[in-house]
Write a structure and sequence with these properties.
Layout (H helix, E strand, L loop, with lengths): L1 E3 L12 H8 E2 L7 E7 L5 E6 L5 E2 L15 E16 L2 E5 L4 E4 L6 E14 L7 E3 L5 E5 L8 E7 L10 E7 L5 E2 L4 E2 L3 E8 L7 E7 L2 E7 L3 E5 L6 E4 L4 E8 L8 E2 L7
Parallel strand pairs: 1-3
Antiparallel strand pairs: 2-19, 3-4, 4-9, 5-9, 6-7, 6-8, 6-9, 8-10, 11-12, 12-13, 13-21, 14-20, 15-22, 16-19, 16-21, 17-18, 17-20
């Protein structure tokens, strides 16, 4: 498990591209036959990828968590980002198709993966909640944007206060309409939560230009398919793709209020 330490906005001016990528971009989450994990000190979020090979993969418990098993003090969101696969939680199998989600609560001891691959997001937890599967049809859809703004999109909210219950994890999948390339524009920050954007469904030779940093002093990351950007609470998070794509957004922090954000007008960005 790779560990990323917390950052502050005054570290961004003068930062090189390589510095930004090392601290905020998770590039190699998917390796055949492995579970790869990245632990961020921003709200203690863990993101990862499980890419089973010929047999099932077990969710490990890295030494850095100081726990007897991965979900001893954590909760987990899983999104299938490939072919149909199965996630088994304490002996109960859950079949997930592409873009479908599974939530596993604190206290689940054994989690294994077959098929997929699967994107993983975990936050600290203080109570045990049931394991729940949800399809795109189960998720609460929110349609935003317009063709004129090239940002028409459907937000499928999976784990949130009115959906799958969790301690602090909030998670969903956004699918852009054909011809739309901008996500989350106008953009925002939320000082009480860290958010991670995971981009997928992007052809290998295409990219997403992800904007980050303070609204009045933005920087960018060039992001490939199946890579994740860790966005600290002080940073904006939005992007433009060179091709159609989808992304998983996930948050952890002080609250679960979806609309607790600081909106940024497009004209105020620099």
């Amino acid at each position: 498990m790779e560990v990323r330490h917390a950052t502050a906005p005054d570290q961004i001016p003068g930062a090189t591209t390589e510095w930004l990528r090392r601290r905020f971009l998770a590039e190699q989450l998917f390796v055949p036959g492995e579970v790869r994990l990245v632990h961020s000190h921003h709200d203690r979020i863990v993101v990862g990828g499980a890419m089973p090979g010929d047999g099932p993969l077990e969710l490990p418990c890295p030494d850095g968590l100081r726990a007897g098993y991965f979900l001893e003090r954590r909760e987990l969101g899983v999104v299938n980002v490939g072919e149909t696969g199965t996630v088994t939680v304490d002996g109960t199998p859950y079949e997930l198709s592409g873009k479908e989600c599974l939530y596993a609560g604190m206290g689940a001891r054994e989690v294994t993966f077959e098929g997929g691959p699967f994107y993983l997001v975990s936050t600290p937890a203080h109570a045990s909640l049931p394991t729940v599967k949800a399809t795109l049809e189960d998720a609460e859809p929110v349609r935003l944007g317009s063709p004129e703004g090239s940002n028409e999109r459907t937000i499928h909210k999976y784990v949130h206060a009115e959906g799958i219950r969790s301690c602090q994890l909030v998670l969903g999948v956004t699918v852009l309409a054909p011809g739309s390339m901008w996500n989350t524009m106008p953009c925002h920050t939320h000082e009480r939560r860290t958010e991670v954007y995971f981009y997928f469904g992007l052809p290998a030779d295409q990219r997403v230009i992800h904007l980050m940093g303070r609204p009045d002093e933005t920087r960018n990351l060039v992001v490939a398919d199946r890579q994740a950007v860790i966005s600290p609470p002080w940073s904006v998070h939005c992007g433009f793709g060179t091709h159609s794509y989808s992304f998983v957004w996930a948050m952890g922090g002080e609250n679960q209020a979806y609309d607790d954000v600081e909106q940024v007008a497009i004209g105020e960005m620099r």
